[in-house]
């Protein structure tokens, strides 16, 4: 079975072969500008996870207190079901779900997509874990992950047929940085991995190892 990092590497190589050079240049430029801006650096290890309540893909309200009552929680923020790197990450998490459960943790994935779009993402990837809809990025903002897409990147996405605003049910074109947190049963963040490069994702195997040493 190929790993998440191997899947990402293969996708990036295909993208480099097929995508126009201007598109690749602008996307790389946006990533560098985001990194240099110093915004949305995310919560850190030792911080307390913000309390929240969000609807899952079926519209059921899920609270952070409910999640923590069952033990440690893995919280992963993804951009949306339209993002190929997000789908690779979600599928990898699904493949490792038994190991995640055996470690004693609960996995929850959060995106700014509407519940309807989240349901589509969940069904497309056959996800058996909780997928939450954070419309307006309110919870992602509490985790200090939200940034505004630059105008030139918005136009590039539109030209590529990606209606991010439509997936999110608004017109703000804000996204969270992809990020993964491990939270212990007291609500303290014991692991945080945030990256300005949207092609980077935390391998689920790494997170499982962290959970094994978390109560």
TrEMBL record:
Known EC number: 1.11.1.24
Pfam families referenced in this protein's UniProt entry, alphabetically: AhpC-TSA
Catalytic activity: a hydroperoxide + [thioredoxin]-dithiol = an alcohol + [thioredoxin]-disulfide + H2O
Record domain Thioredoxin: where: 43-215
Keywords of the record: Antioxidant, Disulfide bond, Oxidoreductase, Peroxidase, Redox-active center
Signal peptide start and end residues: none
Database matches in SUPFAM superfamilies: Thioredoxin-like
UniProt similarity note: Belongs to the peroxiredoxin family. BCP/PrxQ subfamily.
Task of the protein: Thiol-specific peroxidase that catalyzes the reduction of hydrogen peroxide and organic hydroperoxides to water and alcohols, respectively. Plays a role in cell protection against oxidative stress by detoxifying peroxides and as sensor of hydrogen peroxide-mediated signaling events.
Protein name per the record: thioredoxin-dependent peroxiredoxin
């Amino acid at each position: 079975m190929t790993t998440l990092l191997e899947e990402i590497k293969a996708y990036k190589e295909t993208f480099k072969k097929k995508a126009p050079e201007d598109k690749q240049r602008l996307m790389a430029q946006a990533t560098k500008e985001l990194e240099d801006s110093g915004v949305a650096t995310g919560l850190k290890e030792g911080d307390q996870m913000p309390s929240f309540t969000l609807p899952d893909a079926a519209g059921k309200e899920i609270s952070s207190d409910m999640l923590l009552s069952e033990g440690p929680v893995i919280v992963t923020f993804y951009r949306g079901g339209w993002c190929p790197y997000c789908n690779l990450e979600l599928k990898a998490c699904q493949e490792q779900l038994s190991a995640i459960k055996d470690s004693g943790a609960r996995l929850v994935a959060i995106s700014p997509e509407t519940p309807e779009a989240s349901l589509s993402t969940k069904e497309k990837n056959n996800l058996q874990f909780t997928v939450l809809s954070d419309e307006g990025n309110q919870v992602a903002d509490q985790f200090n992950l939200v940034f505004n897409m630059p105008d030139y990147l918005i136009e590039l996405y539109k030209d590529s047929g990606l209606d991010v605003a439509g997936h999110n049910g608004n017109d703000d074109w804000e996204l969270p940085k992809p990020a993964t947190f491990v939270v212990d049963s007291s609500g303290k963040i014991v692991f945080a991995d945030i990256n300005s490069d949207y092609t980077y994702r935390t391998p689920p195997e790494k997170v499982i190892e962290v959970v094994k040493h978390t109560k």
